[in-house]
């Protein structure tokens, strides 16, 4: 089992533990704000399960029906997570509205807060683990899960402050107000997550720093060629696809041009993780810039 799959399973286990603690905190205190925090944890569990299946599917090698692999499955998981976040936020807003119109005193707010804070510490530790390995393995599903958990940690901190102020100030509507603020924050996080995932599904180009590295690697390892142009990149999960045209002298043999391509491909694979490279070799009359330019 890959490390990514192990982390996805770990997210499911952590999500279940955190949800149980947060629901206990709500049950003890009766706080709508703590209820909103517990609702978000249900989404954590659901999306962790979706991330597990997405990571497992994305690891399947290319086949006849999917010659480019199954890497985009992770983006589908991230989109699903964004949609579920929006649904959770709307549910919380409804409860906050009802609670604001008919507020009631909290039962045991400080006990509930202590339980909720413990759950948030677990979330924060696991979030750091997901960020570290999600970036290293360039996994959209793990990074989406990490960003959602970080949003959960931040909102939980706000909830703790808000719920603590209710018994201290006697203003019962504060509980519903903080629940609504949690919902708004969750909505924003869900929108950003869906936006990023749709970008991946729409074959956005690699980031500018990656593009510069690709150009530099091609230029420094294309000795013997005349020009490289029409460079294109796209992301699909952990994989970066790179394709371009390489112009070589008309007198160069097929074997010699193939050796140049191999040298460039080896350099790109060594310099950038998880790449698939496609090079179209062209004769010198196809050059777009007579005299030669390294990479266009």
TrEMBL record:
GO terms for biological process?
A: intracellular zinc ion homeostasis
Q: Which locations, inside or outside the cell, does it occupy? A: Cell membrane
Please give the Gene Ontology molecular function terms for this protein: cadmium ion transmembrane transporter activity; ferrous iron transmembrane transporter activity; zinc efflux antiporter activity
The answer on whether this UniProt entry bears the keyword Transport reads yes
Which key words tag this protein in UniProt?
A: Cell membrane, Membrane, Transmembrane, Transmembrane helix, Transport
The annotated topology with respect to the bilayer is: Multi-pass membrane protein
Name the InterPro entries on file. Answer: Cation_efflux, Cation_efflux_CTD, Cation_efflux_CTD_sf, Cation_efflux_TM, Cation_efflux_TMD_sf, CDF_Transporter
Q: What does UniProt give as GO cellular component?
A: plasma membrane
Q: Which domain of life is it from?
A: Bacteria
Q: Tell me the ranges covered by the Cation efflux protein transmembrane domain, including all copies.
A: 11-202
Family membership noted in the UniProt record: Belongs to the cation diffusion facilitator (CDF) transporter (TC 2.A.4) family.
Q: What is the protein name given in its UniProt record?
A: Protein p34
According to the entry, what is the taxonomic lineage of the organism? Answer: Bacteria, Pseudomonadati, Pseudomonadota, Alphaproteobacteria, Hyphomicrobiales
């Amino acid at each position: 089992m890959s490390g990514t799959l192990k982390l996805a399973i770990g997210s499911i286990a952590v999500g279940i533990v955190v949800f149980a603690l947060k629901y206990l905190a709500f049950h003890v205190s009766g706080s709508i704000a703590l209820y909103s925090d517990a609702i978000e944890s249900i989404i954590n569990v659901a999306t962790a399960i979706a991330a597990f299946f997405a990571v497992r599917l994305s690891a399947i090698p290319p086949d006849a029906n999917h010659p480019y692999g199954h890497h985009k499955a992770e983006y589908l998981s991230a989109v699903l997570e964004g949609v579920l976040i929006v649904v959770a936020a709307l549910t919380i807003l409804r409860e906050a509205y009802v609670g604001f119109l008919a507020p009631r005193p909290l039962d045991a707010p400080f006990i509930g807060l202590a339980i909720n804070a413990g759950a948030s510490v677990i979330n924060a530790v696991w979030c750091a683990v997901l960020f570290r390995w999600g970036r290293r393995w360039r996994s959209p599903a793990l990074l989406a899960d990490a960003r959602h958990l970080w949003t959960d940690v931040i909102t939980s901190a706000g909830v703790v402050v808000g719920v603590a102020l209710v018994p201290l100030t006697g203003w019962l509507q504060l509980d519903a107000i903080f629940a609504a603020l949690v919902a708004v924050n969750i909505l924003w996080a869900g929108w950003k997550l869906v936006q990023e995932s749709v970008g991946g599904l729409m074959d956005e180009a690699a980031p500018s720093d990656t593009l510069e590295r690709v150009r530099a690697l091609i230029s420094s390892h294309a000795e013997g060629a005349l020009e490289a142009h029409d460079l294109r990149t796209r992301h699909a999960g952990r994989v970066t696809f790179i394709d371009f045209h390489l112009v070589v002298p008309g007198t160069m043999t097929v074997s010699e041009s193939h050796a140049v391509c191999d040298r460039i491909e080896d350099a790109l694979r060594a310099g950038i993780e998880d790449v698939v490279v496609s090079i179209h070799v062209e004769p010198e009359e196809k050059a777009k810039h007579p005299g030669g330019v390294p990479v266009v």
